[in-house]
Specification:
Elements: H1 12-17, H2 40-50, H3 58-66, H4 72-79, H5 87-102, E1 105-115, H6 140-151, E2 157-162, H7 171-184, E3 187-191, H8 197-205, E4 210-216, H9 220-226, H10 235-239, H11 241-247, E5 252-257, H12 264-281, E6 286-290, H13 310-323, E7 328-331, H14 337-343, E8 350-352, H15 381-390, E9 394-396
Parallel strand pairs: 1-2, 1-8, 1-9, 2-3, 3-4, 4-5, 5-6, 6-7, 7-8
């Protein structure tokens, strides 16, 4: 068995495939833009490699909590095991920061999966090209019907997702989906395969506001064992996606590691440092975090996030909030309703509602294509709005203007 792989992901077919010769995961493919002048990735990886969370003490956590503005070393302490006894105080301070920068507002959105075709072999993902699932791709009429149905719920923000197949979901196809979305929604986000900056510029011209990219893990050696083929195998191209999106004119970018694939503290630290460094380099950029944990998929219901329990996830979210108090933060339907209700009052500023990770599920009784992963919170928009109000918070559909 490959060293230190989350065993819940593996099966015999994957273990055999891991023995095959594969392309160099650090070498760009010919069609990939290289940011020759950027050192952000090197800085992130260097900081992560130097991060030894076991060395931090309660005294260092105390000092970090007492500081008005927190730097990378404070963030490192707050993510360490030494911070666990301080979780209640971290939550109190995080809530104050959230109120200071976001008031009582909690923003709502829903994801729309328009295609689940994928050319990557990511061994933990339900969409991977070797997983035997029902594949589907919505045409423009289908996309419009789905968006019209979603808009009737009152939502004004949508996140467009595809599997990572440039052949089945090319840039023009995604651009046309953005144009339709702009008719129904005031804010349009993208969670699709990483692109070059000119392609991001085109999608921005079609109406997209922001880009989310899950790095999955910042450990390049572990990344190589989890991503066996496809464009996604190329580690540096994915790490630099947010910077290319900003150069392409996107207003905002979101960062995430998929917690449970590797050492979650080091991945969370790298995620925070990546966001922090890009914020300093591009001060105009709107920065946000997603906080996903590994979930079961079609054909593997045993997948789990190992040692990343709800308490550890909460610590990560609180540390993000205290380190970058102005950053947005999304809590996924991967988590239970009760947990999501709790964290919107503390650190999270955005919550999804009426979610399906399958294709064509908003207008069809039966999904046209299978789901990417299992969700844990299936509440509709009305139910999530009611839960937000019960906590004395204000549900907000949108407060952005596209420029």
């Amino acid at each position: 068995m490959p060293k230190e792989i989350n065993e819940s992901i593996l099966n015999e077919e994957i273990l055999e495939d891991m023995k095959k010769k594969r392309v160099d995961h650090m070498k760009y493919m010919d069609d990939m833009e290289v940011l020759e002048d950027s050192t952000v990735m090197d800085q992130v990886i260097s900081a992560m490699n130097q991060y030894d969370y076991s060395k931090y003490t309660a005294a260092q956590v105390r000092r970090a909590l007492d500081k008005e503005e927190k730097g990378p070393e404070d963030f490192a302490a707050l993510l360490s095991p030494a911070a666990d006894p301080f979780l209640e105080e971290m939550a109190e301070k995080a809530m104050l920061e959230t109120r200071k920068h976001f008031g009582n507002s909690v923003y709502l959105f829903t994801p729309l999966y328009i295609s689940n075709y994928c050319e990557n072999y990511c061994i933990y993902c339900g969409f991977n090209c070797h997983n035997k699932i029902k594949r589907a791709k919505l045409d423009m009429e289908g996309i419009e019907k789905e968006m019209e149905a979603i808009a009737k719920s009152g939502l004004e923000e949508i996140l467009i997702l595809t599997g990572e197949s440039k052949k089945m979901s090319d840039v023009k196809y995604i651009g046309e989906a953005c144009k339709i979305a702009r008719k129904y929604f005031k804010m349009v986000g993208l969670e699709v395969y990483p692109m070059n900056s000119d392609e991001y510029a085109y999608l921005h011209s079609c109406g997209a506001d922001y880009v989310t990219v899950f790095q999955e893990t910042y450990n390049s050696d572990k990344y190589e064992t989890l991503h066996l083929s496809g464009h996604k195998r190329i580690f540096p191209y994915r790490v630099n996606a947010q910077e290319r999106a900003l150069r392409g004119g996107m207003r905002g970018v979101a960062f995430a590691a998929l917690l449970g694939l590797d050492d979650f503290r080091k991945d969370a630290f790298a995620t925070g440092m990546h966001a922090w460094l890009l914020q300093r380099k591009y001060p105009h950029a709107e920065i946000s975090f997603s906080c996903p944990r590994l979930r079961p998929i079609v054909n593997n219901d045993k997948i789990n996030p190992m040692d990343v329990h709800e308490r550890q996830l909460l610590q990560v979210m609180l540390a993000y909030r205290l380190f970058m108090p102005f950053a947005g933060m999304t809590i996924s339907t991967r988590e239970r309703a009760d947990f999501r209700n709790h964290v919107i009052g503390l650190a999270a500023t955005k919550i999804s509602a009426g979610v399906s990770t399958g294709i064509g599920s908003h207008t069809e009784e039966e999904e046209q294509g299978d789901d990417q992963f299992e969700i844990a919170d299936g509440r509709n928009v009305e139910e999530v709005v009611a839960a937000i109000k019960e906590r004395g918070l204000q549900p907000v559909m949108n407060d952005y203007v596209f420029v």
